[in-house]
Amino acid sequence: MLSFPNAKINIGLNITGRRADGYHNLETVFYPVRIHDVLEVVPSAELQFSASGIGIPGRTEDNLCLKAYALMAKDHALPPVHLHLHKHIPIGAGLGGGSADAGFFIRLINDRFTLGLSNPDMESYARKLGADCAFFIRNEPVFATGIGDEFHPLILDLAAYHLVLVMPRVHISTAEAYRGVKPAAPRKSLRESVLRPVEEWRSLITNDFEQTIFKNHPAVRGVKAALYEAGAIYASMSGSGSSVYGIFDKQPDLAELSKENQVFSQL
Ligand SMILES: C[C@@](CO)(OP(=O)(O)O)[C@H](O)COP(=O)(O)OP(=O)(O)OC[C@H]1O[C@@H](n2ccc(N)nc2=O)[C@H](O)[C@@H]1O
Ligand SMILES: Nc1ncnc2c1ncn2[C@@H]1O[C@H](COP(=O)(O)OP(=O)(O)O)[C@@H](O)[C@H]1O
């Protein structure tokens, strides 16, 4: 059985407080985008994992898909499987690729072995694996609060726009990014701002990670500026970076940006 985990972008990200457990409370909008990995699960004599595509840093046993399998196997008599992951979503990019794999894998196992889990059941497994994993169970645009795992419905459709994503050659760890921010009460309500026309977002919607990441990695700031120069209506770093997306009303010419960076378009 095959599944195609997709990436997310964050539209706005306000870090509102630091918690006793070391995590941060935040508010953000998660929006799914069409950059995909490929996950395949087939029955096997023993549990096996293989990967292709972009190299995944870290130990195989720490892959979020294997962690998800172990978690679900505690409660369900799961047969062994061979899991193959073809990695295409850039890593350390603020695109939630690892979390997407975990969320989609939970759904795949639920479907393949007809476990009958509800969305809230699957979200509670996902929450144990990472703050933004639970988003990928429903995989619909949401306004998120808490540590990024409490969801509030949001009607947002950017299909009429040209969405592009630029991936500078900079890898940023999420933990490093959180260490650099000072939590504060948001100056504007993101939940209200995101309902305003996209043309107004530039003066309303910000990502709190940009301040420190732009200081430490000026190339990322340069990509955002280049997207505005190319005519973006709105541009922002996604999550903890380093990817930067631009929302355009027509297909932009990004030939210059493509020389130094990986560019994804038609998202
Ligand atoms: C920043 C965001 C924004 O959407 O996305 P990415 O840029 O990673 O895609 C998320 O908060 C990333 O969520 P996720 O990547 O699942 O985080 P986790 O694996 O749970 O946590 C990694 C580390 O980030 C920090 N962390 C994460 C989430 C949060 N609300 N507060 C935190 O302080 C903690 O130091 C934690 O040890
Ligand atoms: N299936 C997976 N795909 C990518 N990274 C994974 C996966 N499982 C675990 N990881 C670990 O998660 C880290 C963060 O990856 P990722 O979720 O892609 O980035 P981001 O937090 O920027 O969205 C990687 O450096 C890697 O060590």
Automatic annotation (TrEMBL):
Keywords: ATP-binding, Isoprene biosynthesis, Kinase, Nucleotide-binding, Transferase. Pfam families: GHMP_kinases_C, GHMP_kinases_N. It is an enzyme of class 2 (transferase). Its EC number is 2.7.1.148. Residues 63-137 form the GHMP kinase N-terminal domain. The keyword Magnesium does not apply. The active site is at K8, D132. InterPro entries: GHMP_kinase_C_dom, GHMP_kinase_C_sf, GHMP_kinase_N_dom, IspE, Ribosomal_Su5_D2-typ_SF, Ribsml_uS5_D2-typ_fold_subgr. Residues 198-256 form the GHMP kinase C-terminal domain. It comes from the Bacteria. GO terms for biological process: isopentenyl diphosphate biosynthetic process, methylerythritol 4-phosphate pathway; terpenoid biosynthetic process. GO terms for molecular function: 4-(cytidine 5'-diphospho)-2-C-methyl-D-erythritol kinase activity; ATP binding. Pathway: Isoprenoid biosynthesis; isopentenyl diphosphate biosynthesis via DXP pathway; isopentenyl diphosphate from 1-deoxy-D-xylulose 5-phosphate: step 3/6. SUPFAM superfamilies: GHMP Kinase, C-terminal domain, Ribosomal protein S5 domain 2-like. ATP binds at P90, I91, G92, A93, G94, L95, G96, G97, G98, S99, A100. Coiled coil: none annotated. It catalyses: 4-CDP-2-C-methyl-D-erythritol + ATP = 4-CDP-2-C-methyl-D-erythritol 2-phosphate + ADP + H(+). Belongs to the GHMP kinase family. IspE subfamily. Catalyzes the phosphorylation of the position 2 hydroxy group of 4-diphosphocytidyl-2C-methyl-D-erythritol. This is 4-diphosphocytidyl-2-C-methyl-D-erythritol kinase. The lineage of its organism: Bacteria, Pseudomonadati, Bacteroidota, Sphingobacteriia, Sphingobacteriales. The gene is ispE.
